[in-house]
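User: Design a sequence. Structure:
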């Protein structure tokens, strides 16, 4: 059964594409940060952009592995979703959509991501089919999710600082404004998730009965 799932997943990844762009780890970190912000050369809706993203992932994952760090921080693997960054989330969405491949990562993260793919294979394949016809929607979901994670992290940091320094009127106002940003980012993410879900429904893995 697992072999069949593996063949199906591999088939979804076998489209011809340019080789990953080689780059130093420092440049890779910059490219990934820009990608999570919806900027820079790693445009997942172009062949060259995907090659750049894959090269950045390979270089950064290799550097993190040499430092003894499993990257990206996959939910459930460490028990702490709070370790996720907006870059981690963006890269995982790119992987789920088929823009980044398993061999772009290092073990143990590579094995964990493959296991997650097997467990959710129908959804993964539907997302990848949707990405081929509606790449901009998947890209918008990635950016909206990254913004939500980033704004949420800022709110957590601001709350911790307030606990240490004390809460005054201005601090309360800042926290309220940041909470509003989080809510808006969450709403944007949910809207795009619905759009992508609709695309996935339009391109199911198995024919509807």
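Assistant: Done.
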């Amino acid at each position: 059964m697992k072999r069949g799932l593996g063949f199906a997943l591999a088939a979804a990844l076998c489209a011809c594409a340019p080789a990953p762009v080689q780059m130093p780890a420092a440049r890779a970190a910059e490219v990934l940060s820009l990608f999570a912000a919806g900027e820079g050369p790693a445009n997942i809706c172009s062949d060259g952009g995907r090659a750049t993203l894959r090269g950045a992932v390979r270089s950064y994952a290799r550097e993190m592995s040499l430092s003894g760090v499993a990257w990206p921080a996959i939910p459930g693997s460490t028990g702490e979703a709070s370790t996720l960054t907006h870059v981690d989330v963006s890269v995982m969405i790119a992987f789920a959509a088929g823009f980044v491949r398993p061999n772009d990562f290092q073990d143990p993260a590579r094995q964990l991501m493959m296991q997650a793919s097997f467990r959710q294979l129908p959804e993964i394949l539907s997302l990848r089919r949707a990405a081929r016809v509606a790449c901009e929607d998947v890209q918008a979901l990635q950016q909206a999710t990254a913004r939500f994670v980033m704004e949420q992290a800022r709110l957590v940091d601001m709350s911790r600082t307030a606990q240490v320094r004390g809460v005054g009127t201005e601090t309360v106002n800042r926290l309220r404004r940041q909470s509003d940003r989080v809510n808006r980012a969450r709403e944007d993410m949910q809207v795009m998730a619905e759009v992508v879900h609709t695309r996935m429904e339009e391109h199911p893995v198995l024919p509807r009965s």
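The helical segments are 2-12, 25-36, 47-66, 86-96, 109-119, 121-133, 135-165, 169-202. Residues 1-15 have pLDDT under 50 and may be disordered.
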